[in-house]
Amino acid sequence: MPDTNPDAGSTGHGGQLPREQLVAHTAPAGLKRFGIIVVIAAVVIAAAGIAWRQWHSHETASWTDDQAVPTVQLIKLPKGAKGGGLNLPGDVQAFTSAPIYAQVSGYVKKWYVDIGTPVKKGQLLAELDVPDIAGQTAAARANLVNAQAEQGLSAATATRWKALFAQGAVSRQDLDTKTADLASKNAAVAAARANLFSLSSQEGFRRLVAPFDGVVTSRAVDVGALVTVGTGTGATPLFTVGDQSRMRIYVRVPQNYASYIHPGMTVDFTVPQFPGRTFTATLVANAGAVAAGSGTVLVQFGIDNKDGSLQPGAYADVKFPLPGNANGVRLPATALMFRDEGMQVATVDGTSHVKLKTVSIQRDQGATVDIAGGLSPQDRIIDNPPDALRDGDQVRVAGQ
Q1: Is pLDDT of 28 > 80?
Q2: pTM to 2 decimals?
Q3: Residue 214 lies in a domain
């Protein structure tokens, strides 16, 4: 049976094709080189990615560490602080002032001066009508005349009895009786004379006169008004006379500044009615004691007022002079830290570490405070310290 396999005749050699007829699968030229380049590029990209990640991680850690150290701003303290002043309220008063009260009761008959009137010593201010005292004075004068008459009769009787006793006509007892009666009449005359003098003096009090040269600063009388004796609480003086040629300025100085008061010191002050004008007063007296209620020392300054510019009762803004170290260290209030340990201030030492210092405030002026103790001008003080700041923390100073 003939072979029907179509491939059988084509092989011719036992069914195998010739080698030159086999299909060739050789790689294209340069393919191997391209593959190597791709692999190298992949390795480079992978290495670069890993290196970038590591660098970025290092930068993040550095940034985090950097942010953990806070940056602070220091306060620039003035060096060589000059002496300042402490503004205190002052009370201007006349150097000599006298309220005049009624020393006898009566009605105002007439008044002669009004407020603002210059007066001289002994000048009549007002007259009072005191009819009761006038009647009592007349009666006292009559009593004195009567006592003097009885005294004269007793003296004549005692003289006659002395003569009779010398002649042996009367006894010693009778003479002693007449002598004692004369002594009693002498005492009665003395009492009547003293009573008359007292009433006469009171009658003289119906005339109100100026005690010294000055100006009438108040008047509280009118014609027909009843005035009574009294100088107690609530009593109103009929007149007030003040010597305004020299004035006193009373100032209450806080206790912690009392040591800066010294003899001969001067202060400058202003009054509202003369804006821009400065007056100078000299220390006159120092109370030398602290008032328990206010914790202040009362001091008195004097100033001539010949031109009459200053007026009694005026308010004065007194600038009390202070030396350069009187206020301690002055800081803005933003530097203070309120802690359980008390008022504290954060400072920076030479190694950029925080040192918290407890301080005491001498004077609070709102925006600034004067520190009495706990700080020195050489301290590097942090402004607006963070609330989380603790003693020993490391900080970075802005600008360094």
Answers
A1: no
A2: 0.57
A3: no
Residue 344 is given by DSSP the state E
Structure tokens at 215: 């100006």
- Single-letter code of the amino acid located at 210: A
Residue 291 in domain:
yes
What does the pLDDT look like over 210-241, one tens digit per residue?
999 999 999 998 999 888 887 666 678 999 99
Are residues 243 and 316 both part of a single domain?
yes
pLDDT of residue 400: 65
16, 17, 18, 19, 25 from 22: Cα distances, Å: 10, 7, 7, 5, 10
Which CATH number covers residue 332? 2.40.420.20
Domain end residue (candidates: 205, 225, 247): 205
pLDDT tier for residue 167 given thresholds of 50, 70 and 90: confident
Residue 372 belongs to a domain: yes
| Contact predicate 318/269, CB 8 Å | yes
Task: List the domain range (segments joined by +) for residue 353.
Answer: 72-82+327-397
Q: Which long-range contacts (CB under 8 A, 24 or more apart) does 209-212 make?
A: 209/122, 209/123, 209/124, 209/125, 210/119, 210/120, 210/121, 210/122, 210/123, 210/125, 210/241, 211/98, 211/100, 211/121, 211/241, 212/96, 212/98, 212/121, 212/241, 212/243
- Provide the domain count of the chain: 3
**Which one of 321, 353, 375 terminates a domain?**
321
